[in-house]
Amino acid sequence: MKAFTYERATTPAEAASAAAHANGTKFIAGGTNLLDLMKLQIETPTHLIDINDLGLDRIEPITGGGLRIGALVRNTDLAANEHVRRDYAVLSRALLAGASGQLRNQATTAGNLLQRTRCPYFYDTNQPCNKREPGSGCGALGGYSRHHAIVGVSDACIATHPSDMAVAMRILDATVETVQPNGLTRTIPIVELHRLPGNTPHIEHTLVPGELITAVTLPKPVGGTQIYRKVRDRASYAFALVSVAAIIQRDGTGRVALGGVAHKPWRVEAAERKMPRGAKAVTKELLSSARTTHDNAFKVQLVERTLASVLNEALNETKV
Amino acid sequence: MAEFNPSRRKFIQSTAVTSGAVIVGRLVPEADAKSVLQPSQLTKEPANVNVLLRVNGSEHQLMVDPRTTLLDALRERLHLTGTKKGCDQGQCGACTVIVDGRRIASCLTLAVMQEGHDIITIEGLGTPTNLHPMQAAFIKHDGYQCGFCTPGQICSAVAMLDEVKTGIPSHVTADLIQPPEMTTIEFRERMSGNICRCGAYSNIQEAIAEVAGGRT
Ligand SMILES: Cc1cc2nc3c(=O)[nH]c(=O)nc-3n(C[C@H](O)[C@H](O)[C@H](O)COP(=O)(O)OP(=O)(O)OC[C@H]3O[C@@H](n4cnc5c(N)ncnc54)[C@H](O)[C@@H]3O)c2cc1C
Ligand code: SF4
Ligand code: FES
Ligand code: FES
Q1: CA–CA separation, A48 vs A4, rounded Å?
Q2: This prediction's pTM
Q3: Which domains occur in chain B, in start order?
């Protein structure tokens, strides 16, 4: 780990303005992703701002419907929150499908959204990786790419975003609230937070340097049967090969978002209009731009089958 | 961009506002504190910092490099070597300790981040003559072979049962609205963050089931 100075901020505005004034500054929340990457010197901040004392650890109902989730709310507490369990079950389910009991106790809402890819070439500093070292090439293209993305990819990078929670946030149309170093606040629809890799895979989101996430808000509950199905190499404690988040209404309409297939949670609203026609039609539209490798071509069929199984489960639940 | 030119006064103010909270990383060496903080000073002089850790009920004042993980502070500085370093990456659970009643991976948090928190390690759960029920159950059921993962397994299991009791659901909880049940299926899922290279899983599960069931 490279040496750094450390401070604890006490207000969001103070944290954001402190971050803007020193180069190489990073916020640290749970630390479960950042410290891992710092040990490998993939992240090399020279100043860490601890944001655990900002008082952003509350979940509050919004008047008129909806929920405001503080950026520092732990994944465990979010999954266990009574409003979330009742009205946003897909979010509880996605959180509980991720990481381990220990890590969910540490991981925060904002940290989870901003966690970096688990691409093994990104992690191996002996390998080329455009995300870690722009211009060095992509080890995964032409390498071992079983876990990599199949949609929204570029010639520079085929990494996936590893978060389960973010997929649920996307299907729920969450909004990210921030404070910028100049003190101004803004809201960012979740769809605009993460970027596709393009020619700049090292730029992963649309926050400006020093911009602090203060909360994530959820709109009014939409009801329906809410399912998060994660397919992985182990039954627990593994990242997704493919995951499907779905909210299905009694009349067969609904929403779908995918994890494990792209550089961001993957949702195509046009595909959702095909829901009443079944998994094959929806998958065809969702993955119409798919560009697979020899190793990850199986994900196309895996998405369709997982979605079919999810739709089936929803159908059975509404029958009861 | 606004100019960064906070005075010493501002620094003190922000310290005072925290009332009891701490600015652990001193931005400039004590002697220079009167002078104006320059951005370069923020980053150029990483120095050791003071941290007060409360472990197993006793307080320890330590000077640490800010890079020190909680795991390394416990093992290398406080010589509490019960807590083990397996992967140092959050993947194995050998470093599990209980902070404010919650199990965490001590390899993925900094010692300086844990000031003001209550840390319990395997040494604080019980002693050889006064074992915690979970420790006793692991011995009775042979819940280990080499023993390397065991302190992490035991700390994890103790806090895990509390999670079930307080109603925190898991991936295998069928109904999110009902309280989770004390079943082996639940325990197995919830313990998946603790890897045992020796494969003592079935005996670990028997030990946990016994403690959960209140039998001795
Ligand atoms: C072994 C292992 C298995 C895992 N398995 C899964 C899994 O199956 N599914 C899954 O989804 N995740 C998984 N994870 C990842 C885990 O969910 C993330 O590490 C965690 O959510 C990150 O949150 P944090 O609070 O610890 O973030 P940190 O590590 O503290 O921060 C991550 C990044 O976010 C930035 N940041 C944090 N908070 C803010 C803020 N408020 N504003 C602006 N920037 C901020 C930090 O500067 C940093 O760049 C796993 C992790 C490990 C180690
Ligand atoms: S896929 Fe992206 S993260 Fe992985 S090696 Fe290629 S450029 Fe790096
Ligand atoms: S040493 Fe911390 S999880 Fe392996
Ligand atoms: S007893 Fe050897 S690793 Fe678990």
Answers
A1: 7
A2: 0.92
A3: 49-213 (1.10.150.120)
